[in-house]
Write a structure and sequence with these properties.
globular, 4 helices, 8-stranded mixed beta sheet, 38% strand, alpha/beta, 5-stranded mixed beta sheet, 215 residues, Glyoxalase, 2,3-Dihydroxybiphenyl 1,2-Dioxygenase, domain 1
Length: 215
C-alpha cells in the first residue's frame, strides 16, 4: 500500500443525471440528507443494467448505517444487499428509485453513541476495465493516490469537503453491489473538478467547476 499527500485535483461535486431531478433530490434529502456534493439534472440518455459506478456513504458506527438504510427504504429505495456484518465492518447496499446504487458502511464493529445521520465521507467508486491504466490516467490529470492495492483497488486523496474517488475492477464492483456487471449506454453521471473537462478511459465525464451553475 502506498500513501502520499493530498491531491490538487479532486471531485467537488457529483451530478447524477436522472429522469426526474425533483424526485431524485427529494429522495436524497429524505434518505441521506445530502448537500451540494451530490446534484441532479434531467437526462433521458439511454442506459441499461449496471451503470459502472456506486456511491458509498462512510459513517462512524453500525447504528448510523441502520438509520440511513432505514431512511432510504422509507423513501423508496430497494435492497440489493441487506445490512450485515462483514470482514471489513458493517454495511448494506440499496438502489434509489432513479437507479443509483448506494452503499452505506462503517469499519467500526460497535456503536459508541446514539444513532445519527452524520456522513463522514462520500466515496464514488468507478468500475473500470483496467485499474492500473485508469490509475495512471488520473495521476496524469492531477489526482494523488492515497491508497493503492495493486491492480485491484485505488483510492485518491481529497479534502474532507469533497467527494473521494476510488477505482475498482468493474466485475468486482458489481459483485460488491450485488448486481450483474452487464450494462450499456450512458453512465448518467458527471464529475465536477477544478481541472476539467475531460473524459476517462471508461467514458466517465469530468466537467470544469467554473462551468457548473451555482446550486
Amino acid at each position: 500500500m502506498t500513501t502520499v499527500t493530498p491531491a490538487a485535483t479532486s471531485i467537488t461535486a457529483v451530478t447524477l443525471e436522472v429522469p426526474d431531478p425533483a424526485a431524485a433530490e427529494a429522495f436524497g434529502s429524505a434518505a441521506f440528507g445530502l448537500g451540494t456534493q451530490v446534484r441532479f439534472r434531467a437526462s433521458q440518455a439511454p442506459t441499461s443494467g449496471f451503470r459502472g459506478f456506486t456511491l458509498s456513504l462512510v459513517v462512524s458506527q453500525p447504528a448510523n448505517v441502520d438509520l440511513l438504510i432505514g431512511a432510504a427504504l422509507d423513501a423508496g429505495a430497494t435492497v440489493l444487499k441487506p445490512v450485515k456484518k462483514g470482514f471489513w465492518g458493517y454495511g448494506g447496499v440499496v438502489t434509489a428509485p432513479d437507479g443509483t446504487i448506494w452503499k452505506v458502511a462503517t469499519s467500526a464493529k460497535k456503536n459508541t453513541g446514539p444513532a445519527t445521520r452524520q456522513i463522514d465521507d462520500i466515496v464514488l467508486l468507478l468500475g473500470v476495465s483496467d485499474v492500473a491504466a485508469s490509475k495512471r490516467f488520473y495521476t496524469e490529470h492531477g489526482l494523488a493516490v492515497a491508497k493503492s492495492f495493486g491492480r485491484k483497488y485505488v483510492e485518491f486523496a481529497a479534502p474532507s469537503s469533497h467527494v473521494k474517488l476510488a477505482l475498482y475492477e468493474r466485475r468486482a464492483l458489481a459483485k460488491d453491489a450485488g448486481v450483474s456487471p452487464d450494462g450499456a449506454g450512458s453512465h448518467r453521471i458527471a464529475l465536477t473538478c477544478d481541472a476539467g473537462p475531460f473524459t476517462d478511459p471508461d467514458g466517465f465525464a469530468w466537467e470544469a467547476a467554473s462551468l457548473m451553475p451555482t446550486p
